[in-house]
Amino acid sequence: MTVLKVATCQFPVSADIEQNASWITRQMHEAARLGARVAHFPEGALSGYAGTDFETFTGYDWDVLGRASERVRERAGELGIWVVAGSAHRFSDISRPHNSLYVISDGGEVTSRYDKRFLGGPDLDHYSPGNHFSTWDIDGIRCGALICYDYRFPELYRHYVTLDVQLMFHSFHAGNASPERVEGVSAAMGIEYAALNPAATFTYPGITMPAVMTASAACNNMWISCPNTSAPESMWPAFFVRSDGVTTGRLERNVPGVLISIVDTEQDLYDSTGPWRRQAIAGILHSGELAADDRSAP
């Protein structure tokens, strides 16, 4: 099978675990009703995002998170739908948790987990970086996972190419910022350049995150689902990018919603880098045959 219907979901992620779980299960129902095989949610969707949605993991109620996680797993099995959702992964009493994406099968089982590899400076106060890639198959389509700040490191996408990933679930949490914060960032960037950088918000996430997703899809021949929190101010709304770099759908910023997209890995789409992608990854950094001429030397 080469066709997969994906639901890219956004809602206002918060510190309230029960509220997050209610949003997730509600949008899982909507995704299943619309015929999606997989529902994809933002970074920290179930647990909330430390340092933004809540201050610290000190005193965090891990029991509540565990029960909410079980509810989501059970609902996935009842609905027969795959789920990719952000949460915190506690693995030690002496180490910071991972910032993770859990992959739950349509039978309600956790089949994979990706832990965010690259953490921004403030995140390192709350989370431990991950150390592995994560791949799995849904209906014959090879899938992978990344989280937010990982987008700044193209080496991750390039490695996923070598793992034959066709569909990337890249979860983000770029929101829950006050209007004053957004205004301050825009001013620091130079608001006079806003017209030259059309984006949902004139902020670094608003400009660079969607742009890199477009480039990552086109350069790596991957379909990419990009959910984000819709908690105001959200820097940009959830969207979906085809493997040729074309955005095929986008939700409304600051508004909860479910975006349905069709992945067809047999669709004849433009892939200009295809003939040389693997050799570039292998370190052969040119196309065609090199000139056998001394005057070609530097």
Residue windows where pLDDT falls under 50 for at least 5 positions: none
Described by strand count, sense and barrel closure, the largest sheet is:
6 strands, mixed
The overall number of domains is: 1
Distance between the termini: 49 Å
Number of strand segments: 12
Helix content estimate: 25-40%
Number of helices: 6
Secondary-structure class: alpha/beta
Please give the CATH architecture.
Answer: 4-Layer Sandwich
What's the helix-strand series? EHEHEEEEEHEHHEEEEH
Shape type: globular
Q: Can you identify the CATH superfamily? A: Carbon-nitrogen hydrolase
Rg is 20 Å
CATH class: Alpha Beta
- How is the CATH topology named? Nitrilase/N-carbamoyl-D-aminoacid amidohydrolase
Query: Widest sheet: strand order?
Result: 5-4-3-2-1-12
- Portion in beta strands: 15-25%
Arithmetic mean of pLDDT: 97
Explain how this protein is built.
By secondary structure, the chain is α/β, with parallel strands linked by helices. It has 6 helices and 12 strands. Helices cover 26% and strands 22% of the residues. The strands form 2 sheets. Strands 5-4-3-2-1-12 form a 6-stranded mixed β-sheet. Strands 6-7-8-9-10-11 form a 6-stranded mixed β-sheet, with helices on one face. The longest helix is centred in the first third of the chain and has 18 residues, at 62-79. The relative contact order is 0.15. The mean pLDDT is 97.
